[in-house]
Amino acid sequence: MSRNQARFIPGESVSSAVGWEFGDVDKASSRFAAKLAAQALAEEQAKDTLLRQSSFSEGHAKGHAEGYAEGYAQGHAQATLDGQRQLNDYIANQGKTASESLARLFETAQKQLAESEQAMAQGVLELACAIARQVLRHEMATNPNTLQPVVREAVSVLAIDSKAALVRMNPTDVEALSDVLRQEFSHLSLTLVPDSGVSRGGCLVESAGTVVDGTVEQRWRKTVATLGLDAPWEDADAVAE
């Protein structure tokens, strides 16, 4: 049998036959296209959902960041305000107390400094007087002529009318100045009386019942009194000598 004859089926061999209807081939492609469209739509919706979620997350993060920044700014402003308030309270209370304490300390220090300066000045003055006393003693012991101006001043104070005067001096001074004084006061009836109770360098001049005290002790007392001191002429060292 040839190849073509094998494909031919006799009619008596076919018991029944069913008619074949060709369906619309485009329906399958339409369904496939619809499936693809549905998948694309689903993907688009999923993408939109993802974008919305992402936008929400970003918005939430942004809102969180903005809220954090706002909260930080408010906290910083509040902290600054609290710090300023505390500083004002300190200035008004503790600062004022500290300032008053410092002012009292400064006033006390000034007072102590003034007292120290006064004490130092007093000490310097007393030292100067002590030195001056030693110098005067040495001068009167070595130069009796230092008494001559004292007698001259005392006589001039008396304004003698009787033309007579009595001068008491230390015996050593009388011996050293007798001739000099008689020569200077030749116009007076001058009586020189040795008196061991009168210290060297001093004198007592009397005339007509009036006495002028020209002793060293009296002159020294008046001099140091002008300096605000009360220092005797005879100190412990002089007494010991």
Portion of residues within helices? 55-70%
Cα(first) to Cα(last) distance is: 184 Å
What amount of the residues lies in strands?
A: 5-15%
Low-confidence stretches: none
Number of strands: 4
The CATH class of the domain at 118-240 is Alpha Beta
- What structural category do the secondary elements indicate? alpha+beta
Overall mean pLDDT stands at: 76
CATH topology of the domain at 118-240: hypothetical protein PF0899 fold
Number of helices: 7
Can you summarize the main beta sheet? 4 strands, mixed
CATH superfamily of the domain at 118-240: ATP synthase, E subunit, C-terminal
- Give the overall shape: rod-shaped
- The appropriate CATH architecture of the domain at 118-240 is 2-Layer Sandwich
Order of helices and strands: HHHHEHEEEHH
- Radius of gyration equals 68 Å
The spatial strand order of the largest sheet comes to 2-1-3-4
